[in-house]
């Protein structure tokens, strides 16, 4: 029998996807009238994950990962880091000059309005 301390290496990280080989047995256990707690214990996955898989299967008829909703971000993580670094160096720069600097340094082409919107989302105001 495995205890929680010996099972730490098998736990999922927050961003890690559960494989199809584990999703199938979750649905099989559900169809076999097993409780969420029993399925969780047998497969060594969190109860919230088991519940989420069963809910998705009931609503969508599939357990496959769905594409993310919403429009993609204008800037990548690298671009956002570069924008933060630029603003921290000199807070007196205008959005127009920041947009030109990002174009020169990173090759990111964006309008001053987008720069303002991204800065606002990062907590820079003014």
UniProtKB/TrEMBL annotation:
Top-rank lineage group of the source organism: Eukaryota
Pfam families: HTH_SB, HTH_Tnp_Tc3_2
Compositionally biased tracts (Basic residues): 71-84
Stretches assigned to the Transposase Tc1-like domain: 80-126
Residue ranges, compositional bias (Basic and acidic residues): 11-23
Region of interest (Disordered), residue spans: 1-32, 60-84
Domain (Sleeping Beauty transposase HTH) ranges: 12-63
Name of the protein this chain belongs to: Transposase Tc1-like domain-containing protein
Naturally occurring in which organism (per UniProt): Staurois parvus
């Amino acid at each position: 029998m495995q205890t929680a301390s010996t099972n730490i290496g098998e736990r999922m990280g927050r961003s890690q996807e559960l494989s199809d080989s584990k999703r199938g047995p979750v649905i099989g256990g559900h169809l076999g009238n097993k409780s969420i707690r029993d399925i969780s214990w047998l497969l060594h996955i969190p109860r919230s994950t088991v519940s989420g898989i069963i809910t998705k299967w009931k609503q969508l008829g599939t357990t496959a990962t769905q594409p993310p909703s919403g429009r993609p971000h204008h800037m990548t993580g690298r671009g956002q880091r570069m924008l933060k670094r630029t603003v921290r160096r000199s807070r007196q720069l205008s959005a127009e000059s920041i947009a030109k600097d990002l174009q020169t340094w990173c090759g990111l082409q964006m309008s001053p309005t987008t720069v303002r919107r991204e800065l606002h989302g990062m907590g820079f105001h003014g």
